[in-house]
Q: What sequence folds into this?
């Protein structure tokens, strides 16, 4: 990993392989959740996978001020510029799916393709239930602290054996999540719940779009799928059988296969490639 100066902050990143650049935006809470996917992608073709840590995670600069999906998208845009890249493939997962969507609108000149993997259900018909669940987590954080809230969140999302499940697939992640949990609860969740994005915004996305989801991810993400298909009728959609919201870790190879197939059909023209 290395640090890159991006304006007045530094962002830490994994930079793997050579070829068309694929920028993987870090999701919330688990800093290296996309690192296994990045490693798989570079073994499947001529790709340079750049998986970076957002503000407040690992070795990247601390968070200053309130969180914002728009600011996270601006950080990604500025990172692309700092790396002297013209056009890139962008991948966002869960929280960072929101960041990737925002980036595709705010920095159309840089985003060659957009892949979103189960972005958050903040704009679907059942979003009040999602928002209520997050409000309960925020109440736990206020009453009992971020670590207690983290335990509650991961127990709900993954199950009672979440430590074993996470460490088996991503060693060291438990310690990292505990260390960065305040960023998740105090910055990312408020940023996500205040993010506004609708069909009119989606019309500003002019690049090819791929959505990847799991068949077992539950009704919230089924509604997300329906919404994205409505927003991007020409977009591509991949449904992975037996996968749930942990699909980037549990079904890494299948996600990588779908992603590389999509990227291979939308190569970056030579005029926009680095060097």
A:
């Amino acid at each position: 990993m290395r640090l890159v100066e991006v304006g007045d902050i530094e962002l830490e990143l994994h930079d793997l392989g050579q070829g068309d650049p694929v920028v993987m935006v870090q999701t919330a809470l688990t800093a290296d959740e996309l690192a296994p996917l990045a490693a798989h992608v570079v073994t499947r073709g001529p790709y340079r996978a750049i998986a970076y840590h957002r503000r407040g995670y690992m070795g990247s600069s601390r968070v200053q001020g309130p969180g914002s999906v728009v600011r996270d998208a601006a950080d990604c845009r500025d990172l692309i510029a700092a790396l002297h890249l013209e056009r890139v493939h962008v991948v966002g997962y869960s929280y960072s799916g929101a960041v990737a969507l925002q980036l595709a609108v705010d920095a159309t000149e840089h985003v060659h393709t957009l892949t979103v993997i189960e972005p958050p259900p903040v704009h679907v018909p059942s979003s009040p239930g999602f928002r209520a669940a997050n409000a309960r987590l925020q109440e736990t954080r206020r009453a009992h602290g971020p670590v207690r809230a983290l335990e509650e969140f991961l127990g709900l999302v993954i199950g009672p054996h979440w430590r074993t499940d996470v460490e088996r697939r991503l060693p060291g992640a438990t310690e990292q999540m505990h260390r960065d949990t305040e960023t998740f609860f105090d910055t990312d969740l408020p940023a996500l719940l205040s993010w506004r994005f609708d069909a009119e915004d989606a019309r500003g996305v002019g690049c090819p779009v791929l959505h990847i989801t799991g068949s077992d991810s539950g009704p919230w993400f089924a509604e997300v799928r329906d919404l994205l298909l409505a927003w991007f009728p020409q977009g591509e959609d991949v449904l992975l059988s037996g996968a749930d919201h942990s699909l980037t870790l549990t079904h890494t190879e299948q996600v990588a296969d779908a992603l590389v197939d999509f990227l291979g059909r939308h190569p970056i023209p030579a005029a926009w490639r680095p060097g």
